[in-house]
Design goal:
Blueprint lengths: L2 E12 L38 H13 L3 E2 L2 E2 L2 E4 L9 E4 L6 E7 L4 E11 L3 E4 L4 E4 L6 E7 L6 H18 L11 E11 L11 E6 L2 H20 L7 E6 L4 E7 L9 E2 L6 E2 L2 H9 L5 H12 L3 H8 L2 H11 L6 H18 L12 H12 L5 H14 L3 H7 L8 H14 L1 H8 L4 H13 L6 H16 L1
Parallel strand pairs: 12-13
Antiparallel strand pairs: 1-10, 1-11, 2-6, 3-16, 4-5, 4-15, 6-7, 7-10, 8-9, 11-12, 13-14
Helix pairs in contact: 2-3, 5-6, 6-8, 7-8, 7-9, 9-10, 12-14, 12-15, 13-14, 14-15
Bound molecules: adenosine-5'-diphosphate, magnesium ion (MG) and zinc ion.
Length: 477
């Protein structure tokens, strides 16, 4: 039987604030365990939470960028459950009135609908030893925004693309470190199968997969689940509604807990946080402050710099690369295409090889790339030499022009370029070439002069003479 996979994603994003969502404790990552806690985030009796305004501002910023409608009324709820990393035995979250709802993220050809984006506080972190477990409460009360899609994703690849696109938007917004390793971006995925050809709005039983530590893990876990569920169905079984854990080393998911009966979290309005309204003006002022987002930037790159859409998308996928490109092209609009080729070619390759997150870590500032292109365009060095020079610049952290000068780099070193120029000279001055071939020796000196002029003095007289003589004699034969 053929099945169609249906996928929905839940992303937890840590909002970048100096202090926690309901108290003044710092949010610094990596501090000694339980050094960033107070009676409020430890849930002592009688304490009162106070909402951090910056959390609200950042949350609205993200929700607007995802084209969500912003709830004018801000209400928090208590989500009650017991777990050792949750000292209050409830999490302050949002329930029926999420901060934002009904948005979308545009992928290449499809819109993925965002069901809701809501604010909540993080729980603590359990550290398991062999015969004991420890708990670190530094993370309790760290602000999170949970971003939930509709079940609109159709494949592991599309889920991966969605996550990359979402992360790109979030990075542009500068609202979070978006670092999965530090837990500032976490992701759970939901997946079900339905028979091919069944109604568009029908849904199979879903499985939730947790413990996904990278976007790659999300895609792998989904591929695994799709195979597993298909097998269950093919064998006449039914998929159990449950939560499963991804084991990256084993490349498989394992059942964690059954979700047959939905948790009863006994949500009720948080009595210690009075509901309030956000004015339309406040929302508008956040909207006005939104930066240009990746999609819009890619379109602008196409029209302003004459790049292909594919190149523009590649350049704008990360804000660092887009900014780098614009810093380069600012004074040199005519070189837009050449700059894009270098950034997406050599620079991207180096970043890949060194496993660098951002182009800024390359120690090759925009001025250096401009210098390098200038060396090539003026004919002083060949493309091949430029690549070598680039590698030397990265190694030494020095600038191309300076290094080229010091090394006496010029096209003399690259014979094929000189030969090409020499052929052009011979063709342009066919009379002098003919003269030389019929024995007029001094015609060669004229051609040497022309070749040196053409290469702006990069070719030495001796080498120029040698190459021209060879070519002229070769053609004579
Ligand atoms: P829960 O109550 O278990 O958290 P939700 O209805 O809130 O479930 O949905 C959580 C996520 O699961 C959303 O991203 C949603 O799009 C996705 N989802 C819901 N139903 C399905 C399904 N049948 N198949 C795949 N994904 C689903
Ligand atoms: Mg949920
Ligand atoms: Zn605190």
């Amino acid at each position: 039987m053929t099945y169609v996979p249906v996928v929905g994603l839940e992303v937890h994003l840590q909002l970048k604030t100096a202090s926690k969502i309901f108290c003044g404790c710092p949010t610094t990552f990596g501090a000694p365990p339980n050094s960033q806690v107070c009676p409020v985030c430890l849930g002592f009796p009688g304490v009162l939470p106070v909402l951090n305004r910056q959390v609200l501002a950042l949350g609205i910023r993200v929700a607007l960028a995802l084209t969500c409608r912003i709830s004018p009324r801000i209400v928090f709820h208590r989500k009650n459950y017991f777990y050792p990393d949750l000292p209050k035995s409830f999490q302050i979250s949002q329930y029926d009135l999420p901060l934002g709802n009904d948005g979308f993220v545009e992928l290449a050809e499809r819109k993925i609908r965002i069901r809701r984006a809501h604010l909540e506080e993080d729980a603590g972190k359990l550290i398991h030893g062999e015969d004991h477990s420890l708990v670190d409460f530094n993370r309790t009360g760290v602000p999170l925004l949970e971003i939930v899609t509709e079940p609109d994703l159709a494949s592991p690849e599309e889920a991966h693309l969605y996550l990359k696109t979402l992360k790109g938007i979030l990075e542009y917004l500068e609202v979070s470190d978006c670092d999965m390793e530090k837990g500032s971006l976490r992701c759970d995925t939901n997946v079900s199968l339905k028979a091919a050809g069944s109604a568009a709005d029908s849904l199979g039983t879903k499985v939730e997969v947790k413990n996904l530590n990278s976007f790659r893990a999300v895609a792998r876990a989904l591929a695994y689940e799709i195979r597993r569920q298909a097998q269950v169905l093919d064998e006449g079984g039914r998929v159990a509604q449950e939560t499963r854990l991804w084991d990256d080393a084993a490349g498989a998911t394992q059942a964690m807990r059954s979700k047959e009966y939905a948790h009863d979290y006994r949500y009720f309005p948080e009595p210690d946080l009075v509901p309030f309204t956000v004015s339309a003006e406040e929302i508008e002022s956040v909207r006005r402050a939104l930066p240009e987002l990746p999609r819009a930037k890619a379109q602008r790159f196409v029209s302003r710099y004459g790049l292909s859409l594919a190149d523009s998308k590649a350049l704008t996928a990360s804000k660092g690369t887009a900014d780098y490109y614009e810093a380069c092209v600012k004074g040199q609009p005519a070189k837009g295409k050449g700059l894009a080729n270098w950034i997406l070619g050599e620079l991207a390759r180096e970043m890949n090889e060194r496993n660098l997150e951002s182009i800024g870590q390359l120690s090759f500032p925009p001025e250096s790339l401009l210098e390098l292109l200038e060396l090539i365009d003026s004919g002083r060095i060949s493309g091949k030499m430029a690549k070598e020079l680039f590698a030397q610049c990265l190694q030494s952290g020095r600038r191309p022009a300076e290094l080229a000068k010091e090394k006496g780099l010029s096209q003399v070193a690259d014979r094929s370029i000189l030969e090409e120029a020499a052929r052009a000279v011979i063709q342009e001055h066919s009379q002098a070439a003919a003269d030389y071939r019929t024995g007029k020796g001094q015609a060669l000196m004229f051609l040497v002069g022309q070749l040196m002029r053409r290469t702006q003095g990069a070719a030495s007289p001796a080498v120029s003479q040698e190459i021209l003589r060879e070519l002229l004699l070769e053609e004579k034969r």
